[in-house]
């Protein structure tokens, strides 16, 4: 039984307490003030084994945990923001904010990375690195107001990673079984791009629907789902997926005798394409959906198609070393096929790799079969998985 | 040239002025107070040829125009309410209320029926009937808040039609050429029923969309359009139509990485079926859509299906007499195939016919090719068509 395991087991109850505090008070992107205040309450004055340095950036809050002079800098990342989802778990520590919840597990990430600071400051482990703990704002929904950029983008721009030679990011995944860590070399997550299609049509009285496909903006917007699939499917061997995420048309009952003249459809479009191919796909989507809508509606409706680039693909460099370090401490690391989630840790990782460093993004199993997916009202990951996450971070810090 | 033509031509400028006043200040169902106040400003004190009696009902305002003792009572109907549509005509007298407009021509109906009162009171014509002018609230969107019932339903219940032997309702139609009146014997418009489908699904992260049709409420709600069509199409020989009017899922950009767990679809379902067959169809829709959603989603999503009965079908009794009266005055009356609009004049008409009277609902051409359809932001009927409407009402009043 490693000292990392013992330290993590020791701190699990404290991490659970911290996680539940954060969970009850979720804050959406670019409004994470309360969460940052809570993080800042952990200070080093009551400990003798490390000193803490605080840095406020636009992209988030950075806590340096200094264990010695001239140690190399290793960074870990926790994301701070919650999602616009009404929690329906019924948990005693459920979100107290209507319509907002930590439905992606960022609350667990915060508690784990805080656990690192506390374990080091209390002398439970002795790192071979000074640690830069990145508490990053606005990971979710790049492109959305009030600032389309993400926290990771800003942290990389602001120099928060200068001098960092290794960056590791652990993300819980409720659909993977607790007890292992899962990752791979190279691309692990995709470009998380969004397509917004605004249809403008003539509309009309529902009784006059003989030429509905020409004039009913809702009917036309519904067709955008198969239209995007038709564009993307020929590229399917390249691991591309698209999925509708929103559609707004009409005003419910109060307009229930009207064929809407406007509709807005939102679709996710996720790929591993590099910058040039990605841009070409976006241009193709804009051109083809506009053309398809015109043809479908006999030139009586039009589509304004916007592609909002999300996070770039997340690409690992250094998985072999990451894996051997963890396995040497008795932690199971399983190979995982890449998936088309997206994370702005990619901005941070790209920066570190460009400077010659290493970057590994990995998932921590936090549930398994029967656990609700991320981004759902029932999301309720296995919080005991934080123990393995902290154990892994500590093993890396001491490697 | 008949005296009806002359009277109507004489009053057209006044009707246009009244219509534009109403048009600029539209009021949605059950909020027509300002419109009724405007109507009440027309009083008989300055005229010597008829006296006016005012009656306030829950269903609207009724103006009796009394020309003599013991004359039979003939009723005309004007509907008062506007629609929740943002006007985009750019007209100088366009709606001054954001998001609300007279996009169905009720403003023209009000001006025409007021024209009847003024023509009779001024002695321009000499009716053989006392006239009951029904200014009826809440014709649009039966089933919607704040009161699901319509104004016509209440007027019939409240006794506003007691003693009425003939009821005529003229409705402008912008897609028919100005200059003629169009109607038929028997059914002319349909049961204007609504179907609301609320989908509850698991939702999920957009990257986990391998089983999207099981969990994405938006994808499932979009399928309700073909599902309803599949139920209704086998009855197509019976003149049945369905059309989507609304779909709400997700929160646009702020939820653009989430497969929605909820979606609400609205569909219009219009038929000429009698009461029993209509009820059977509603039960079939509820049962089959619920079952289809369960099957489509592999029992992982559920649908709550509500059918909101709209106005009953509009069924004319007495078209031959109506037509011969108008043709005798030189007014062109063309046969029109029934269409699946809906109007709560059916409540009024059913009442009169049950009492042994006559009821004819007819369209006045008010535009033609190139004119925007009813219920659209660009709706702008030919207001000169009010002249023919008034001419017809006066010819009927004197028949």
Automatic annotation (TrEMBL), chains A, B:
Under InterPro entries, the record lists: Amidohydrolase, Bact_exopeptidase_dim_dom, Peptidase_M20, Peptidase_M20_dimer
What Pfam family is a match for this entry?
A: M20_dimer
Q: Kindly give the SUPFAM superfamilies that the UniProt entry links to this protein.
A: Bacterial exopeptidase dimerisation domain, Zn-dependent exopeptidases
Q: Which residues form the Peptidase M20 dimerisation domain?
A: 203-287
- Which GO molecular function entries does the Swiss-Prot or TrEMBL record give? hydrolase activity
Q: Which parts of the chain are coiled coil?
A: none
What is this protein's name? Peptidase M20 dimerisation domain-containing protein
